[in-house]
Amino acid sequence: MDWYRHKSSRQVHENRAGGLVYLTFPILEKIDWASHLFSTRMGGASEGIYRSMNLSYTRGDRKESVDENFRRIAAALGCGVEDIVCSDQTHTTNLRIVGKADGGKGITREKDYRDVDGLLTDEPGVYLATFFADCVPLYFVDTRRKAIALAHSGWRGTVARMGQCVVEKLRESYGTDPADIVAAVGPSICQECYEVSEDVADAFAAAFTKPGQEREILLAKGGGKYQLDLWRANEIVLAEAGIPREQIQVTDLCTCHNDRYLFSHRASHGQRGNLGAFLGLPAN
């Protein structure tokens, strides 16, 4: 991964399929009955500010280009675009259980739901999709019940403990024991790049109250500005929800630092496409 600016523990693997470049997580690669990836900007059909693997129909890109991009992602996953179910993200903690009947929603047909930032399924042949350009992707695999979940967690989702909401929904829906979950915190903006205002910092200080937590996730810069660590905040949420720490993999890849290869809203001042997180259960 010669383009990777922060060469530390490399918590993601780079993969190539023709011109397509996508990322996978070592902790999830070990689960052979689930398929996942996180897209990069490389290997798509889009042009201009969307170059080239843009996965958004709503930012002004040509529909034909986005259609082709989804086809290439589906091929890498080993499914069809009609097997993918897309979220409808509005920075909530709303979750939706989906199945084969929802296949293609957000790509080949209209979604019949709104305000959904996380998806869950236990049906083979269903692939979940959520979308990003600095916010945090959260992957969940119940290794015993063979249920999966995928969620979008920006600062609002994180302070509202999206990760805990997903764990509770998995337990309620499938009988999941958090001790059986393997989770990944995907590429997103790092603390160094993520400056927030005092009201956001105050919200996190009020939500993360155990000794030392505020210092772990917030760095005061003066003038009412703070640097916020969404990676660590989400790791805390997942661990407090009962997932063993050794079963949580946290990215070390920043979208903003690596904006030539990953879309970043902050680095591009909003002139960008969307990355995609995908997690699915191949058909038997």
Short account of what is shown:
The protein has 284 residues and is α+β, with helices and mostly antiparallel strands.
Structure report:
- This protein is α+β, with helices and mostly antiparallel strands.
- The protein contains eight helices and 15 strands.
- The protein has helices at about 25-30, 65-75, 155-160, 160-175, 200-205, 215, 230-240, 265-270; strands at about 15, 20-25, 35-40, 85, 95, 120, 125-130, 135-140, 145-155, 180-185, 195, 220, 225-230, 250, 275-280.
- The model is unreliable at about 1-10 (pLDDT under 50).
Blueprint (SSEs and pairs):
Blueprint: E1 13-17, E2 20-24, H1 26-29, E3 35-39, H2 63-77, E4 84-86, E5 95-97, E6 118-121, E7 126-132, E8 136-142, E9 147-153, H3 155-159, H4 162-174, E10 181-185, E11 195-197, H5 198-207, H6 213-217, E12 218-222, E13 225-228, H7 230-240, E14 248-250, H8 265-268, E15 275-281
Parallel strand pairs: 4-7, 5-6, 10-14
Antiparallel strand pairs: 1-2, 2-3, 3-15, 6-9, 7-15, 8-9, 8-10, 11-13, 12-13
